[in-house]
């Protein structure tokens, strides 16, 4: 049985249902026990998710750690999450930070976002907005939608590290909104409605507001319902007003 390669791992994540045709659980375990870091990471994911094996967070941690110690960035990120959430191991924010950082330094966008969040608002970790912004930018620039949303909001509010900049707010919110983040869609709608960082555009404001509402964002549903009551320039439509206001409830 061939050992897992980076290409094999991509195939595994894309077609988990098909991978068993190539790799049996037995052969995967054999590769993992033989020291293959990719196989160890995959096995950890399977135990974490209960995918063709009985869910077992302790075994997931065991294999993530084996892989992470060999430098696998995904395993390092997953191990950080396990320590962060106390799954299969005692909650330990310092170890979570350690493994997030290891993964982030290798360019994992999700780990970069989680690391940034630790520096922003994680009990037990000293707040450091400079480091948070640094890692948020790294993550956002790689296309992480959640990082793009948070970075956009930070530019909107401004702080002693990041100067308020509405144009950058719109830039990052749009990036996030286009990937379907409903909070970003709502915030982008607000920017278009107020004409902050972008030319005021009521039709685009409504467009993004509806996108957010359609994804179940309560605030957006409430605002859209009120707008359809004819109170904010949208053509009055009481049936749509009732629809969205009921959705919010």
Topology-level CATH name of the domain at 1-88: Serine Threonine Protein Phosphatase 5, Tetratricopeptide repeat
The outline comes out as elongated
- Describe the biggest sheet? none
- Please give the CATH class of the domain at 1-88: Mainly Alpha
The secondary-structure class comes to mainly alpha
Strand content: under 5%
Poorly predicted runs are 1-9
Distance between the termini: 55 Å
State the helical fraction: over 70%
Radius of gyration: 22 Å
CATH architecture label of the domain at 1-88: Alpha Horseshoe
The overall average pLDDT, rounded, is 91
One letter per element, helices H and strands E, the order comes to HHHHHHHHHHHHHHH
Number of strands: 0
Number of DSSP helices? 15
Secondary-structure blueprint of this entry?
Elements: H1 6-14, H2 16-19, H3 25-33, H4 37-49, H5 57-68, H6 73-85, H7 93-105, H8 109-121, H9 129-141, H10 145-157, H11 166-178, H12 182-194, H13 202-214, H14 218-231, H15 238-248
Describe this structure in words.
The protein is mostly helical and 249 residues long. It has a domain at 1-88: Serine Threonine Protein Phosphatase 5, Tetratricopeptide repeat (Alpha Horseshoe). The protein is 71% helix and 0% strand. It contains 15 helices and no strands. α5 packs across α6 and α6 (73-85) packs antiparallel against α7. The chain is elongated. Mean pLDDT is 91; it is low at 1-9.
Keywords:
249 residues; mainly alpha; Serine Threonine Protein Phosphatase 5, Tetratricopeptide repeat; 0% strand; disordered N terminus
